[in-house]
Structure formats: structure tokens, C-alpha cells
Amino acid sequence: MSSPRTVSAQAPPNPFVEFDRASWSRLAASTPLPLTDADVAHLRGLGDPTDLAEVDAVYRPLSALLQLYAGGTGQLHRATSTFLGEHPTRTPYVIGIAGSVAVGKSSTARLLRELLRRWPQTPRVDLVTTDGFLYPNAELRRRGLLERKGFPESYDRRALLRFVADVKGGAEEVTAPLYDHVTYDIVPGRQQVVRRPDVLILEGLNVLAPARATTDGTSSLAVSDFFDFSIYVDARTRDIKAWYVDRFLRLRRTAFAQPDSYFRTYAGLSDDEAVARAESIWESINAPNLRQNILPTRGRARLVLTKDADHRMHRMRLRKL
Ligand SMILES: Nc1ncnc2c1ncn2[C@@H]1O[C@H](COP(=O)(O)OP(=O)(O)O)[C@@H](O)[C@H]1O
Ligand SMILES: CC(C)(COP(=O)(O)O)[C@@H](O)C(=O)NCCC(=O)O
Which residue range or ranges hold the Phosphoribulokinase/uridine kinase domain (predicted)? Predict the structure, then answer.
């Protein structure tokens, strides 16, 4: 008889399969890449050196995988409708993109949107960022949360959950509030309208946050319960901090210099003063949020993309279990 081995003595199964850049890139060698250098230059974020080689190596396989998954999810949805005796209706395929402030979520989201739009099965792709669901500054001030912008409690989580549930539920028209990075506040009276797209990409720091416990001990739904796929954009914290500081320095000459900028007093800072200011915002707000709230959600993503110090993605971990 073999000696009994308790389950708890074994290492937990690793649900991820891991690829380096070269092996990931080979997975979709025959998939076309419908973007040009000019498209990529137009889509990349401030200080982000993403080029066509990066898109070819990383995003081409990813868009091929997503097409397969979206097709499979559509079939599953139709099977469920048949089982329930209902007329099948199309619902958007929802992709969540999570990661730290300044890690480059927006570039990833914009590149994916353009790639997916160029596939015949998913021509209508909408991109929504969760910053629109931050409470306005006046409300954050009232709640004592102005220094905690980006922490889970700085968002109207109920409104965000309702938004995603409505989109996934196939509602004809759903609206999201809009945030402006220049004024550093919600734009009063302006909204983004989502009308049953083929794909919705929802990008934000906390999109993989688990459901909150309710007062009676049960747990409510989480935004990620409505995701069909999710991506966590990862990098070393010290690299992300360097990108944050670098972006802050660049913004002095552009966004901060605008007359309506919340940060206009920063436009006149010397390099040393600007570095000190950026480091202080990073250490007091963005680093604790990354450590306490964002990094702990990494293992909940279906795909973790890890960047080098130069923004190149070098490791891909895909959930297979
Ligand atoms: N203070 C700011 N002023 C103007 N634009 C900003 C400011 N902070 C961030 N942005 C821009 O907002 C977008 C989202 O930034 P962020 O939330 O840090 O996510 P990420 O860098 O991961 O995409 C980026 O395109 C960034 O360049
Ligand atoms: C607006 C943000 C909270 C990001 O929001 P998201 O779209 O990820 O929900 C972030 O970019 C931010 O402004 N953080 C506050 C600290 C700072 O100024 O860097």
C-alpha cells in the first residue's frame, strides 16, 4: 500500500502556464497583424516606447487567443439560451485590464481595442476606464479621501458594478461618467455612452478587486464576475515608480501647463523639485495602493503580462486551470 499523503502537504497546483517572449510570440505565427508603425505610434502612452515589434511579439498572439475565447464564449452563451428555451441574444465580450498607476494599462487597452476592431467578428469595441467612477473631488474631500484617489473606497463601486452588469446583460444603452486627468476631477454633465458593443474593455487599477462582504456576512458580486477575460499588466515596483516620475516630469510642459490644470503650480517646478513632488505622491498614494490593493489581485487575472525596465513585455502567464 502506498503511504498516505495528505492533500495539504502537497504544493498547491500552479494554475498558470508560463511563456517567455519568444515562445509566446511563436504561438500565433500565422495570425495577421493589421496595424502599422504609424498606428502604434498614435496609440502608445506618454513615455511608452511600444513599437511594432512589441505589438507583433505580444499583441498578435493575444488577439488571436482572444478571438478563440470570444468565439467559444459566444457558443456557450447560445447553448445556455437553448437550454433555457430562450431566444439567444448577443452580449458583449468583456475584458478587464488591471495594474498599477503608470504601468501602461491605457496603452495596452488602446492597442487591444485597435487590434480587436480589425477582426471581422468583433468590429465594435468600446473602451471604458474606471476613473469615471471615482467620486468627484468635492465628495472625496467630504469623505476625507482626497489623498486616497485610486484606492477602492474612492470609487462609487455600486455604480461601477451596475454599469458592467448592464453592459454584460445586453442593455441597449449604458452610460459612464467621465474623468479628466487635467482638471483631476469628474467632468460635470459629460458621459460616455456604450451601445451593445461586440467587446467592452474595462481598464482600471482595481478591476480585479474581490467582492466586498456585506453587513449580513454574505458577499456581493465583484466587477470581475462579469469579465470573460482579464489581463494584469505587471512590472517591478521600482520600475513603475521611475515611469511615474518620468511621466510627471514630461507632464510639466504639457498637461500641467494648461490653464485649467489642477497641477498648474507644478508647471514651474525645477527638475529636482518636480522629482521630489512626484516621489512624494508616489510614496504616499500610489505605492501603498499598489501594495495593499492592486498587487494582491494579480493572481486573479487570466493573463499576467510582465514588463522589463524598458517597458518590453518579457513574461506571459496564462491561466490554464
Ligand atoms: N496628471 C495627469 N495629467 C494628464 N494626464 C495624465 C495624468 N496622470 C495620468 N495621465 C494619463 O492618464 C492615462 C492613465 O494613466 P494611469 O492611470 O497612470 O494608467 P496607466 O499609466 O497604467 O495607463 C495615461 O494615458 C496617462 O498618460
Ligand atoms: C485617476 C487614477 C486614480 C487612475 O484611475 P483608474 O482609471 O485606473 O480607475 C490615477 O491616475 C490617479 O490620478 N491617482 C491619484 C494619484 C496621482 O495623482 O498620481
Answer: 94-236
